[in-house]
Write a structure and sequence with these properties.
By secondary structure, this protein is of the alpha+beta class. The protein has one domain: 2-Layer Sandwich (YaeB-like fold), CATH 3.30.2310. Helices cover 23% and strands 46% of the residues. It has 2 helices and 6 strands, in the order ββααββββ. A hairpin with a 2-residue loop joins strand 5 and strand 6. The longest helix is centred in the N-terminal third of the chain and has 10 residues. It is globular, with a radius of gyration of 12 Å.
Length: 83
């Protein structure tokens, strides 16, 4: 696992956000706009063959969007929060 200082240009990919992500944001009290902010401004961490994590560190908490890249499609399937 390598934390990259390079931000990924997601405009090249078709972004698909699963329904599970929105359920988790409501359960965890995360505003849904933070999903897009994390994807655009967050740091990229790659794992496995296709896996990616977008990490956005804030003052009070860290938002992590977990997904995978398959072809030209970026699929986000869960969101995590660290305090």
């Amino acid at each position: 696992m390598i934390l990259s200082d390079i931000k990924m240009d997601i405009s090249k990919y078709e972004v698909e956000i699963k329904h599970h992500v929105f359920i988790q944001t409501l359960k965890r009290g995360i505003h849904p706009d933070l999903i897009e902010d994390t994807l655009v401004k967050g740091k990229l961490e790659r794992f496995g063959k296709h896996g990616v994590k977008f990490i956005s560190k804030g003052n009070k908490r860290t938002i992590i969007c977990v997904g995978q890249i398959v072809g030209m499609k970026l699929i986000i399937f869960t969101i995590e929060e660290e305090k």
